[in-house]
From TrEMBL:
Lineage: Bacteria, Pseudomonadati, Bacteroidota, Cytophagia, Cytophagales
Pfam families named among the record's database cross-references: Trigger_N
SUPFAM superfamilies found in the cross-reference section: Triger factor/SurA peptide-binding domain-like, Trigger factor ribosome-binding domain
Protein name stated in the entry: Trigger factor
GO molecular function: peptidyl-prolyl cis-trans isomerase activity; protein folding chaperone; ribosome binding
Record Gene3D superfamilies: Trigger factor ribosome-binding domain, Trigger factor, C-terminal domain
NCBIfam families named in the record: tig (TIGR00115)
Every Trigger factor ribosome-binding bacterial domain range: 1-148
GO biological process: 'de novo' cotranslational protein folding; protein transport; protein unfolding
Amino acid sequence: MDITLEKASDTNASLKITLTPADYKPEVDKKLKDYGRKVQLKGFRPGHVPASLVQKMYGKSILVDEINSMLSKTVSQYIRENKLQVVGDPVPDREKADAIDWDNQSDFAFSYTLGLASEFDIDFSDLPSVTQYEIQAGETEINSTIADLQQRFHNHAHGEEVNDGDTIYGELKQVDGPFSAKTAFPTNQMAEDAKGQFVGKKKGDVVTFVLEQAFPDEKARANATGVKKEEAADLTGEFTFEVDDITRHEPAELNQEFFDKVLGVGTVSDEEQFRTKVAEIIKGNYGRESAQLLRLDIEKTLIDNTPILLPDEFLKNWLLEVNEGKFTPEQIDEQYDEFTKSVKLQLIKNKIAEKADINVEFDEVLAVTRLMVQEQFGFMGGEDEEMNKTIDRIARNYLMDEKNNGQNYTNTFNRVYDDKVIEYTKTQITVVSQEITVDEFKALVENR
C-alpha cells in the first residue's frame, strides 16, 4: 500500500492511496472461502460449490466491499496518526473511482480531497483577561423577590365589595332561559370592558349582563358557568348574577409562618435574616447565569485571539453535499460565519485538551448522568444502596440506549469533555472578578 499526502496550500490537500493485491487479496480469499462453505446452490452439496463458481458469483462484490472497508480504515488511521487538522469529511474523487475496471484491474488508485485547518498554537499568556461577574442583589431586587414570594404564598380573605382580581361567588340565572347555577366568577378572566359592571358591587347585589360579552373566550365562559366548553358556546344573551361572597388573595404577612414556608422551619427568625437569605438565593440564581456568561466570554476570547485559516470553498461545497439539498448556496453563505466559529472553537478545545492531556473516562460520563437522573426523578441516593443501584441502572440504560445509536453517550461525553477544557482554561488565563448589580447584569446579557 502506498499513501501520499499532497498539500496544495495550508488548507487544501489530497490524499492518494494505491492498493496492490498484497494489500487486499488475503482477506478477499478468506471471505471467498467462507462463502464457499456457506453458500447453497442447486446441484451441489453444501460446502462443495466449486471455488471458481463462487468466485464468479461473489468475487467482485466481495472485492469491492473489502477495498471500501480498507480505504475507510486507512484514511481514518492516516489522519489520526499524522494528526492532520481535517475539517469536514474527506471527499473521494468519484470520477476516478467510477473509472475503475473491477473485472480486470489488480492495482487500484484512489484519491481524496481534504480540507485542513491551518497550523496554530495557543499561548495563554497572550490572551486578554476575562471578567467573572459577582451579582449583588440590591434593595430593589430583594423587595421585588419578597413581594413575588408574598403573592405566591398568599392568604385567602373575604371582601366587602368587588375589586378587580377578586373571585365572586353567587347564583347565575339566564333571563330568558332555564339555565341556573351556583358558580364562581374569576374577574381576571372577564373582558376588561365588562369588569366595571361587577367592580364595586357588594354581597346581595344583582348584576344584569350579557354573558358572551363578559366572557368572550369559550373556555373562560365554561369555567364561569361550570359547563363543558362545547355547551358554553350555546350559553348567550342576558344573565343575572347575585353576589353571595367575595374572596381575594392577600399577600402573605412577613411573619414566622411565612419565613418557614419559604425557607424551611426555623431557618430564619426575623425579617432581617430573611432578607439576607433572599439576597443569597438571588445571588446563587444569577451565579449560574454569570458562570454561563463567563464560559461564553472565554470561548469568544479563544476564537478572537487564535488565528485559524479554514478551507472555505471546500467547506461550503461539503456542507451543500452532506445536507442533501436542505440548504441553498445562499443559505450556506448566510450561516457560514457561525458555522466556522463552532469549527474553530472545537479545534481550539482539541488543541487545549492535547496540550493538557485532558481525557474523559466512562466513569466520569456515568457520574454526570447519575446526577442528571437524580435531579430529573428527585432521587436522593446517598447511603441507600438499593436507590443507588436504581440510579445506576437508569443512567447506564440511558447512555447505552441503542434506539439513538449511542447519541446519548456521545452528547454526555462531549459535555464532560467541554467542561474539563473550560475548567482547565480558567486556570491558565486571568479571570478578573467584578461586582455588578442585577439590573446591570441583565443589561449586560441583553447587549451580548
